[in-house]
Design brief:
5-stranded antiparallel β-sheet, 23 helices, alpha+beta
Length: 710
């Protein structure tokens, strides 16, 4: 077979493979150098494809190719029509391609299938013009390629199906620019962008990266490790919302360009759930701590102040307060926690009508919240939100005994705020806890009041009991004194009287002999009668002193005060005691000035005091003592003294000299039963004065009395 130049051109057109074309060209070059038919034939035989030369009618003019697969040989092909060797549909397809090739003078290609000993095979035919009304057809077995393409299509279909149906957003971007080449439906659903809005644009153009440092980190990891796995980032979607994503990516090569295949999973809801779970745990912790604090503490102020502080920190609010809107005039803020820079509500007052309106609103509507004060028709109960700089608020009622007692309020001053359900739930539950705390504090206050009242009653009853016990002790003491007086002091004069009477009887029997019937008159000396009178008088004084001391203890000293000149009263006392003074050879020295101020006193009671002091000095000292009486004004007091130069008083006796019922057998300065000085002190104290004694043994004693001036 001889190849003409047009044949060579046809072969060149048919060889789409560059390597095959160059091999063919080298072989043809060698043929030019050695133009022999044998070599042309060897060149053609070296080609793996089958070649046919056909005319317009589809008659095979020439053939070349391997027939080891059982196909027709060259002898069986040449001169026959395509309809003789090929199925009718394939023959018609070939004849049509021959016509187009000759008519258009261009390369024509078509594919067809034939069954042979190896089964159904795929072939590709390339037709070029090779002469007048002739074409050269090169037929290649493309079964393996078709199978590979089919497998590739299946793989691509699987990838495309996985790409499209993946629940995670998948993107393919260029590594260098970040330009989006392909995105799936999940990406469209996640970002809100349509596919045509993002293809060809970069992620920077779209502003998807919330933090550009995240993109730099992804690129750094890809370059260092070739892949990124589950990197948490933040992405901005079309609406402007920020979503939290987990990004996994790796580098792939697409059409000779390095690209990033990235899978993105939206974990925003999961993160929100985690945040809400943490907030719920923190809320439960806060409620538990406050409930525990309420159970363990009775300090209501501390509980309320701690509550508002912790709630403000938890809510990140600008102000949290607890207010009393019950019956307090103008309302009252019980506790407040406010952030720096915001005004305080302490001291805020409202009209009674406003308080009533507020209570009615919360009793009817319960929890009240507003996200933007500017959207309210009118400020809540006419509160001056502008002055308090409130932009949003949440308030829950604190209910006691089915009535609104107060409010737990959270304010946002920095801007509007959308209150979340768990925040409302927290404040409502805290409102219940605050109500428990207030009720508990109220019960504790009632208990404390009742306890104080009970303690006061116990003290009163104890005091009454002590008084009764003291009265009983006094009665017992009076009884003891009376018995002592009866058995000792009063017995002495009675025994004296009895002895006198017995002596008289003995005298009578002695005079009358042994016959009592002869007794008539018993002569009694005057001295005996005087002793009996003195004894009886002494007994009467003792009894009167005893009764008077008891009266002072029970009812006190009864006074009848009047303006009294103290010096005149002392002079009168000295005059009344002159017989006793003369009998005891007492020298009286009176240093009594005439110009002393007047005292408002009972003259009879004061005279008893001075009389008792002077008589005691006479009775308990030997005859011949000297009594010195003085009176002087010292500021607002009148000071009087009764001083003797007798035997004096022991120091141990001085401390108990004016006590009640301290008389002993050797005690001096007392009336018969130890009541005189006690009565003197009671009388002086009743006048608002003082009484005391100064003494040394062997140097006498000095009693002093002070009385307030009129």
């Amino acid at each position: 077979m001889i190849l003409e130049p047009e044949h060579l051109q046809a072969l060149q057109d048919c060889c789409r493979d560059a390597a095959a074309y160059h091999r063919l060209r080298e072989m043809l070059s060698s043929l030019v150098l050695h133009p022999s038919e044998t070599r042309y034939k060897a060149l053609l035989d070296a080609m793996p494809d089958r070649m046919f030369r056909l005319n317009r009618e589809g008659i095979y003019l020439d053939s070349k190719g391997d027939t080891s697969d059982g196909e027709n040989t060259e002898a069986q092909i040449i001169g026959k029509s395509v309809y003789d060797l090929l199925p009718q549909n394939v023959a018609a397809q070939a004849l049509q391609a021959i016509g187009r090739t000759l008519d258009t003078q261009t390369l024509q290609t078509y594919e067809y299938q034939l069954a042979n000993s190896q089964g159904l095979r795929d072939y590709e035919a390339r037709l070029v013009v090779s002469g007048r009304d002739e074409v050269l057809a090169i037929v290649r077995d493309i079964t393996e390629r078709k199978q590979s393409e089919a497998a590739l299509r299946v793989s691509e279909q699987k990838f495309a199906k996985a790409f499209r149906s993946s629940p995670g957003a998948i993107t393919i971007t260029t590594l260098r620019e970040g330009r989006l080449i392909e995105v799936n439906d999940s990406f469209v659903e996640l970002t809100g962008y349509q596919r045509e809005e993002v293809i060809g644009r970069t992620t920077l153009d779209l502003g998807i990266w919330q933090n550009l440092d995240d993109r730099g980190k992804v690129l750094q990891l890809l370059k260092a490790e070739g892949a990124v796995s589950n990197l948490e980032c933040e992405a901005r979607i079309k609406s402007g919302d920020i979503r939290t994503i987990l990004l996994s990516a790796e580098i792939i090569e697409l059409n000779g360009e390095a690209c990033i295949l990235a899978t993105t999973n939206d974990i925003t809801e999961r993160k929100r759930a985690e945040v809400e779970l943490n907030l719920a745990a923190e809320r439960d912790r806060l409620l538990a701590e406050i409930a525990l604090r309420i159970r363990q503490s009775l300090d209501l102020d501390q509980i309320l102040h701690t509550t508002v502080t912790e709630v403000r920190q938890f809510l990140k609010a600008d102000r949290v307060l607890i207010g009393d809107i019950s019956s307090v005039p103008g309302g009252k803020v019980l506790a407040e926690s406010v952030g720096p820079g915001w005004p305080s509500t302490l001291g805020l007052a409202m009209e009674q009508d406003q308080l009533k309106q507020m209570r009615t609103m919360f009793e009817q509507g319960g929890t009240q919240m507003f996200e933007d004060v500017a959207l309210l028709d009118e400020p809540l109960c006419q509160l001056d939100f502008a002055r308090l700089q409130v932009k949003a608020g949440l308030a829950v009622p604190v209910v006691l005994d089915n009535q609104v007692y107060g409010l737990l309020v959270a304010h946002q001053c920095s801007g509007t705020r959308r209150w979340k359900p768990f925040e409302v739930d927290l404040l409502e539950r805290l409102g219940t806890q605050i109500a428990i705390a207030i009720q508990q504090a109220s019960l504790y206050q009632q208990l404390a009041t009742f306890s104080a009242s009970l303690e006061r009653q116990v003290e009163e009853r104890t005091l009454e009991l002590q008084q009764k016990m003291q009265e009983l002790q006094e009665l017992n003491q009076l009884k003891d004194v009376f018995i002592h007086s009866m058995s000792h002091d009063l017995r002495t004069p009675v025994m004296g009287t009895l002895m006198v009477l017995q002596n008289l009887l003995k005298l009578e029997f002695h005079q009358a002999g042994d016959c009592p019937s002869q007794c008539s008159v018993v002569p009694v000396p005057r001295s005996i009668l005087e002793r009996m009178v003195q004894g009886s008088d002494r007994q009467l004084k003792m009894i009167n002193s005893l009764l008077e001391a008891h009266s002072c203890e029970v009812r006190g000293v009864v006074l009848h005060p009047e303006p009294t000149q103290i010096c005149t009263l002392i002079q009168a006392t000295i005059s009344d005691l002159k017989p006793l003074l003369d009998k005891s050879q007492v020298t009286v020295i009176g240093l009594l000035p005439d110009c002393l101020p007047i005292v408002n006193a009972d003259p009879l009671q004061l005279q008893r005091v001075f009389e008792n002091l002077m008589v005691n000095a006479i009775q308990h000292n030997p005859p011949g003592i000297t009594l010195t009486l003085t009176a002087e004004s010292t500021g607002t007091l009148i000071r009087c003294t009764v001083q003797d130069n007798g035997v004096g008083i022991k120091p141990a006796h001085q401390d108990r000299l004016f006590d009640l019922y301290t008389k002993g057998r050797q005690c001096r300065y007392s009336t018969g039963i130890g009541l005189g000085l006690y009565l003197c002190r009671q009388i002086i104290l009743a006048h608002g004065g003082q009484i005391g004694v100064e003494s040394q043994l062997g140097q006498g004693a000095r009693f002093w009395v002070t009385l307030p001036q009129a």
